[in-house]
Design a protein that fits this description.
The chain has about 425 residues and is of the alpha/beta class. Helix content is about 40%, strand content about 15%. α7 links the parallel β3 and β4. α1 packs across α6 and α2 crosses α5. The longest helix has 28 residues.
């Protein structure tokens, strides 16, 4: 599996080239030297991008050629693949990772027992071969018993009490004082937010909440389903400590948020027009103990570069169990790789333009854009009729021959 890591050095070179239009020749020489020192990483990248053929005997010669590097830079290839994204992504073989990856703050505002937060920590270490770190983990839980369980869970998994903070309180009412700071320079921000809130929870929106800074500009979620209230709560706090809006949020929600009307349709339309929804991933049914319904993951960003939405329909890819379905490593890798590279695959994933979404009245029902159904086989009725006629003629011919034999044997004909 290909993994994403940081390389801030190359990012700085490329941003200088992109923003300040500095001379390209010094950059090309420095990049060539750097790439020569990290041959395995870049051979892997360029071959993945179809710029090199690793089976070609001349690969090394092409790779070392300064003119080859110059043509790549002149065509803005490196800028598009390294410099354009503020996340400073560099593609390398995970077994030879060379840069530490750090998340400053991670939040789950409906953390339950804290398992999702712990999974983020575990996966980060796994994907970075132990070099990835999280500055601090934050969680919030309304149920006092589950809140205590979350704290205990963190400690049992070897976390120091300085490495996490779990708050007991109602997320929708924003009872955490630290989250009510109005000074922009002191306002808490998270560069990664994950959540699996209660689905379609009934709540009591009021006039005070209508003016709440989390919901103002989007509107309140309906009383019958607080799904978008949870989403907007988390989305408001997405960002980094340096006041930038970088960061990614992933939230698990029922499919209803993708197509329901009324207030939810207005919130959905506003998020789309502001280019905040990065991807929508449809998952199989019966994955969770708490519900058998199929769910989806909404990935949101405030600094989104692409002006489309990536739809991934993974509803048909799972391993069926007696009581519960599961996703294998292969299924998970398919989702991750498709999202990472925004690949399009027939009956699995597709990048959809805002114009097309607008034509569909901002309805995000996944099957509208990525259908898993097989195309119906077109039947040529004239050809079928012709074949039936030939079959009947053959039956008559062979029946007559058979009756001749029966006649010779003094047997009744058929």
């Amino acid at each position: 599996m290909v993994t994403v890591y940081f390389d801030s050095q190359i990012f700085r070179y490329l941003k200088n080239l992109e923003i300040y239009h500095v001379s390209k020749q010094p950059l090309i020489r420095r990049l060539s030297k750097y790439i020569s020192e990290n041959r395995k990483h870049f051979l892997y990248f360029f071959s993945h991008a179809h710029l090199l053929d690793l089976e070609n005997d001349k690969t090394d010669k092409k790779f070392d050629d300064l003119k080859f590097m110059e043509s790549i830079v002149e065509n803005n290839f490196l800028i598009q693949h390294f410099g354009a994204e503020k996340a400073k992504y560099l593609l390398v073989d995970p077994s030879t990772a060379f840069e530490e990856y750090k998340l400053n703050k991670v939040l789950d505002f409906a953390c339950g027992s804290g398992s999702l937060l712990l999974n983020v920590r575990t996966q980060l270490k796994k994907e970075t071969k132990g070099t990835g770190t999280i500055g601090k983990i934050y969680g919030q839980e309304k149920n006092i018993t589950t809140y205590n369980l979350a704290r205990m869970n963190m400690l049992l998994h070897g976390m120091k009490d300085t490495e996490f903070e779990i708050f007991h309180g109602d997320t929708l009412l924003n009872q955490w004082d630290e989250f009510n700071e109005m000074n922009p320079s002191k306002k808490i921000k998270f560069d990664a937010i994950v959540a699996n809130p209660p689905f379609s929870l009934r709540w009591e929106p009021n006039d005070t909440l209508a003016e709440d800074f989390r919901f103002k500009g989007y509107g309140l979620a309906p009383k019958s389903a607080a799904d978008f209230a949870f989403l907007l709560h988390g989305f408001h706090f997405l960002g980094t400590d340096n006041l930038s809006d970088d960061g990614t949020m992933a939230i698990i929600l029922p499919h209803g948020v993708l197509f329901r009307g009324g207030a939810e349709a207005r919130i959905r339309e506003k998020l789309l027009k502001d280019n905040r929804i990065d991807a929508i991933i449809g998952l199989p049914s019966n994955l969770f103990y708490s519900t058998g319904i199929p769910v989806c993951i909404l990935v949101l960003k405030k600094c989104k570069k692409q002006d489309d939405v990536l739809f991934i329909n993974a509803s048909e890819q799972f391993e069926k169990g007696k009581r519960q379905n599961t996703l294998s490593e292969k299924h998970l890798d398919n989702i991750v790789e498709t999202y990472k590279f925004r690949n399009e695959r027939e009956r699995y994933s597709r990048r959809v333009s805002m114009d097309e979404i607008k034509k569909n009245d901002f309805n995000l029902n996944i099957s509208r854009y990525v259908s898993t159904s097989e195309d119906e086989v077109q039947i040529d009725l004239k050809e079928v009729s012709k074949r039936l006629t030939l079959i009947n003629e053959s039956i008559k011919e062979n029946t007559d021959r058979h009756n001749e034999f029966l006649k010779e044997l003094n047997l009744d004909r058929i």
